[in-house]
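User: hey, got a sec? need Thiazole synthase folded
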Amino acid sequence: MKPITETLTIAGKSYGSRLLVGSGKYKDLEQTRIATEASGAEIITVAIRRVNIGQDPNAPSLLDVVPPSKYTILPNTAGCYNADDAVYTLQLARELLNGHKLVKLEVLGDEKTLFPNMPETLKAAERLVKDGFDVMVYCSDDPIQARMLEDIGCCAVMPLASLIGSGMGILNPWNLSLIIEQAKVPVLVDAGVGTASDAAIAMELGCDGVLMNTAIAGAQDPVRMARAMKLAVEAGREAYLAGRIPRRFMASPSSPMAGRVV
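Assistant: Yep! Here you go:
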């Protein structure tokens, strides 16, 4: 089991924020900038197939409002359905970002559920690690698959809480707890968070961080939701470190009878 630390460390670099955010689905780049700042996040994930970070020199670039000098850019393979496409996409990202090694791998199974295709994910992860990438990987909430990805050399495992963009929250906390208990690398919930309480629960379970996009960008007020998520992640982490009281089937009075004055 990994040691409890005050900062989130991924691939040898430490971060003060345990909230990671996406960069898609905002109404424009200015809203992206403001919401990202409000979230306090330091790692920003970018869908290389959907967001311009230099592929089109004639179009506005996300990097104009989320500069690599201020944030760690985390290229991801959203929209990839096989290992070959995922590996190629991240090799392109490495070229665009001047040799950047930290990436988020996701290989999807189908367009309806966006559930991870684990056989293809495992193949892609092995190839990317051998190619020198630091791989954070979106995966099913299966403890065996998570351990296999860690054994391959992934620097973080990112099990889904529920389907991407569903906002259903954490549907299987028991599996997440099993993954957290065995992991020696950071475990971050990725996908399914809908509101601040979902993020807090993930952190209270012992997750090292939470990654989200739709929950913030799709809110009626994305900037306010970004602030709420920041506070929720911080509160959940504090509660986890504090250690909650055990659940009991009987009442336990706040003011015990023993030692009473009268």
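Quick note: The two ends are 49 Å apart (CA to CA). Let me know if you need anything else on Thiazole synthase.
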